[in-house]
Amino acid sequence: TLNSKNLTKKESYLIALAVSVNQKHDALEQSFTRLALKEGASEQEVAEAISVTSLMNVNNVFYRFRHYMDHEYY
């Protein structure tokens, strides 16, 4: 299990879910989804963890792209 003084088990599992989504590890994604739901996470919270991870990945790609482009293109 993931133990923390500052996070609940639900929060820990949602963070672990986000990491597994980021790493594209399907087995861990399914496991942490089940664990988070078991600890009281709603379907919306699970969807939010996945969505936020996806959004952060898009931002990382976009800003890396902007860094390499000439300033006249944006």
Q: What kind of assembly state do the chains in view correspond to?
A: single chain
What's the helical proportion of residues?
A: over 70%
Order of helices and strands: HHH
What is the global morphology?
A: elongated
Strand content: under 5%
**In angstroms, what is the radius of gyration?**
16 Å
Report the span from N to C terminus: 46 Å
The main sheet comes to:
none
Q: Give me the number of helical elements.
A: 3
pLDDT average, as an integer? 87
Summarize the structure.
The mean pLDDT is 87.
Description:
It is a single chain. The chain is mainly alpha-helical and 74 residues long. The chain has helices at residues 9-22, 26-38, 43-68. The termini are far apart.
Salient structural properties:
74 residues; elongated; 3 helices; mainly alpha; 72% helix
What topology emerges from the helices and strands here?
Layout (H helix, E strand, L loop, with lengths): L8 H14 L3 H13 L4 H26 L6
Helix pairs in contact: 1-2, 1-3
